[in-house]
Amino acid sequence: MAFSAYPDPVAADAPIGIFDSGVGALSVLRHIQARLPSEHLLCFADSGYAPYGGKSDAEIIERTLAIASFLATKNIKAIVVACNTATAAAIDALRQHYPELIIVGVEPGLKPAAVFSKSGKAGVLATASTIASSRFIALRDQISSSTGVTFLSQACVGLVEKIEKGELDSPETAAMLERYVTPLLRGGADTLALGCTHYPFVQPLIEAIAQRESAVPVTIIDTGEAVSRQLERLLQQRGLQRFETTAGSLQAFTTGSRSALVQAFAQLLNQHPSVTEMPAKTAA
User: Fold this and answer.
1) Residues 69-81: pLDDT tens digits?
2) DSSP line for 210-254
3) Is 83 known to be catalytic?
4) Which of 120, 213, 235, 277 gives 185 a disulfide partner, CB atoms 3.0 to 4.6 angstroms apart?
């Protein structure tokens, strides 16, 4: 596969690319919009290939580089990998291919989960691929060693698919979360890290389970805000932050259904950006 060479150096007015295997990108995008309202954003939802959680590292790297190649044709100044699975599997390859770009990944929230835990036990909800990744295991072991906090990890098989379908409060989604969240709480976890960017959209269900099952308050960690802070820091560091008083633009692309992403933006963010449906070969 051939990847496009990156074009000439960019200015502060250049857009920022954000991508995920699907609508999880929107949970990170809303934090970026809140912190950096002047930035132009390109949001790529690779829903035609979702979920990434069951794919091999090689497949995830291939998709990540293909999407980055497409976004690079838009003369972006930064890429936000708004996907824990893609960050774990592919961010090193992405940085190797695009050393000129600001590249920000998503961590599964282990550090803040350890900080907020009073019981010394923190739960992590993530995809099977994220939990099995060497990046996650190394981070978990490092933080556990330095803080003494024990991490209880739960692979949430099938949850991304439910969220992609817009089933945010269906009985089936609620029952699935019951199976995944309850054992963590009964195991003593008093913090829950949402280790997939799709999961903040079912946070109300998670909170309801926590209130019912835990005798103590449970802190839920959404890492989207930390991503937006890191992006802001790196933009300022390179003198690339856009400080115009006008609001930034937003364009969206998907390898899935255009109407589904239009509906997701309306349902999840009450926004109505231009959405372009991409043939899979466009980002390949």
Assistant:
1) 999 999 999 999 9
2) HHHH-SS--EEE-THHHHHHHHHHHHHHTT-----SSPPPEEEEE
3) yes
4) 213
